[in-house]
Design a protein that fits this description.
Length: 136
């Protein structure tokens, strides 16, 4: 059995308004692994560093999209927990997040998201848990 073209599914569905404002682009997608990138420019705090909240938005977007791909188009999902540790600042270019599934269950999914700068240095590690809501 061949895997669906998850990027085509995402293009057809479109992205959320916040993802658009942040400039988030998903470049690889499956329920098991997602890769997305986001520009530093436009997402900085007053000192010119990538805002820590921007890292969390990227992480939540990747984990939520992965959960939605796992759950299927007829199920709704919500994030129930997210945390992030900021290791290093980013001041220019893009950061890239790679979300790897920790657990893909019937009602709950968890992902670890590693965010790196353009030099391949880890700038943030995040973990998200999403709930797959019961069909009503």
């Amino acid at each position: 059995m061949t895997q669906p073209d998850y990027l085509a599914i995402l293009r057809e569905r479109g992205s959320g308004h916040l993802d658009q404002k942040m400039g988030i682009e998903i470049i690889e997608a499956s329920p098991q692994r997602l890769v997305g990138r986001m520009p530093v420019e436009g997402n900085t705090q007053p000192l010119g560093l990538l805002h820590g909240g921007a890292n969390v938005v990227l992480a939540e977007s990747l984990g939520s999209v992965g959960t939605q791909l796992h759950a299927g188009p007829d199920r709704k999902i919500v994030g129930v927990d997210i945390n992030a540790t900021h290791h290093k600042s980013a001041t220019s270019g893009y950061v890239t997040g790679t979300a790897t599934a920790i657990s893909l269950g019937k009602t709950m999914c968890s992902y670890e998201i590693v965010i790196e700068n353009e030099d391949g240095q880890r700038t943030c590690t995040a973990r998200i848990t999403c709930l797959i809501l019961a069909q009503r």
